[in-house]
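Lest this sound abstract, we think one record worth quoting, the chain in one-letter code, the fold tokenised, each line plainly labelled:

>
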Amino acid sequence: MIKAFSTKGRDEPGHARRAADGFTLLEIMLAVSLMSVVALVTYWCFSTVLTGWKRGMTLMDNLHHGDFVIEQLVSGLRSAYYPDAPRSGMGAYGFTHKDNGNGPYSSDEIGWVKLGGALVGNDCPFMGSPHRVCFKVDTGARGKSEAMVKAWQIIGQPEDFDQEKIEWTPISRRVAGFNCRAAWKTVSDSTDIDWQDEWTNTNELPTAVELTLYLEPIEQEQAPLELKRVVGLPAGALSPHH
């Protein structure tokens, strides 16, 4: 006699195990939500680090440009030249200064006679002879402020030479402003310096010059970065000349 066995009771535990091995819709939604939060936090951290790195690189680049310009100015001023017996008139060798405001976006202009390759380059044909160099910060061809230089040889120029026709050459597009003050030490107290916002004695050389460069800010709402140097002119001992 063959007995029939029912599989109903045996199948029920298997169904229960297979049901327990799956994921409910709520569990899937919770896992997706957690993954989204982790991805969002990871992206935010990466974006913050990347933004900070970019700002740091921009700041270093701006400082590099500013250091280059101000070191060129310092080197040029320290090689200032003023002969005991000027052959082209006293005013041809004096220090000139146009005061065009104060603060981060000032645009002063200075000029003096020097020797050497500072601001003009060691490949300049007249770097070894006395030449006047002018420096300013003004709006350039791109519509933004930039540091500019022009220079010409003092001796040997034709009679129709016009310095106004010499074009300005940009040397840095990261400089937003330039302010300068010149001074002559008083006789009564050699440590007392009378700073002047504009040097009007164009037939003389000052004893010291204060240079302030303002670099472009990393962000528009930030203030420009300030670089300041005080330079003593070795040729200042020859001044004043009248």
Observations:
- The CA atoms of residues 27 and 33 lie 10 Å apart.
- The radius of gyration is 35 Å.
